UniProtKB/TrEMBL annotation:
Domain VWFA: start-end pairs: 12-191
Origin superkingdom: Bacteria
Protein name: VWFA domain-containing protein
Organism expressing this protein natively: Corynebacterium sphenisci DSM 44792
Organism lineage: Bacteria, Bacillati, Actinomycetota, Actinomycetes, Mycobacteriales
InterPro entries: VWF_A, vWFA_dom_sf
Amino acid sequence: MDNLEPKGNILPIYFVADESGSMGPDIDHLNQGLMSLLEEIQLQPFAASNVRFSIIGFDEEARLYLTNADLRYIDTMPTLVARTTTYFSTAFELLTLQIPDDIAALKAEGYRVNRPAVFLLTDGYPMPDDPWQQALQALMALPGHPNILAFGIGDADPATIAEMASRQNFAFKAAEGADTGKMLAEFMSSLTQSVISSGSAVANGQPQLLPEIPDDFLSIDVDEV
């Protein structure tokens, strides 16, 4: 008789990165941060074993660079590229397609699956013809809809960031006038610690999302935008 005991809990984490042209001067900071994340996570195999990591880049279209990956067994990270204009709908549409498939695949392997977490990073505004609100609504209608933490740098619009976040306390904007390269480095460091902390919590039987917020990012008060 087959052993039907679940293998344990898995937290799927999606890093969704703006690849619009305005990210060009600082995209290298993101790529360096991804490699640092991989190196740090591989030093924490206990936490890493309970996380599956995906990377999506978006501009006029969205690209799935890494999917449902166990970072203990990844040799290198994909390279993000600054491209054209900002269409958030492409990222939300890809997540709407991908998340159910990823959850189903993990369950088929015998895991329990915690609610996915999306860490979205952008430095821009949506284009006027971008139907991002409808795409976001479809994503959040999924039974396995994610928790979305939205982070804005540079010229990102606080009102848009606040609307994308799935909770009032999940929307953040870099301090006015802050150096973008420094903010990206802080964000990637905090993302790394979020993966480690959340993975450790899941491994210890306390499945919860434990986001680490970068020092120079401010919580957006949605009552004041």
